[in-house]
Q: What sequence folds into this?
């Protein structure tokens, strides 16, 4: 069974950092782009970052540029999202998703999704 499992969420104060992980089981991530999304109740799901499987190029939402860094370790079939200088507006459930090779423009083109991990930024 192919699945993605996120971990690393939690409660952090404004200005703090968290590192999220997305581990694949039942398959490897070598040929998949990895993306991170977040969702706040009442708001649409937002893609915050994506990294391709081909050349490792990445893109970020304007709201997280310069603060978040997406990376991958293909040997461990794991993706990461390093989140620094966290703000209360970063609070939400964070999901990872994967798609073949490139970062899709449409959410429906992602093949697998994780169950999500809660991130709360509050003093």
A:
């Amino acid at each position: 069974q192919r699945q993605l499992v996120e971990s690393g969420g939690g409660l952090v104060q404004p200005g703090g950092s968290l590192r999220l992980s997305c581990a694949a089981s039942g398959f490897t991530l070598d040929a998949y782009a990895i993306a991170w999304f977040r969702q706040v109740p009442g708001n649409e799901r937002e893609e915050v970052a994506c990294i391709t499987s081909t050349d490792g190029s990445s893109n970020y939402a304007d709201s997280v540029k310069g603060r978040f860094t997406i990376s991958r370790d293909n040997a461990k079939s794991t993706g990461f999202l390093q989140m620094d200088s966290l703000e209360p507006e970063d609070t939400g459930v964070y999901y990872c998703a994967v798609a073949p090779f490139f970062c899709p423009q449409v959410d429906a083109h992602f093949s697998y999704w994780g169950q999500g991990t809660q991130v709360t930024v509050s003093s």
Remarks:
- The chain has no helices and eleven strands.
- The longest strand covers residues 92-100.
- The chain has a mean pLDDT of 96.
- The two ends are 40 Å apart (CA to CA).
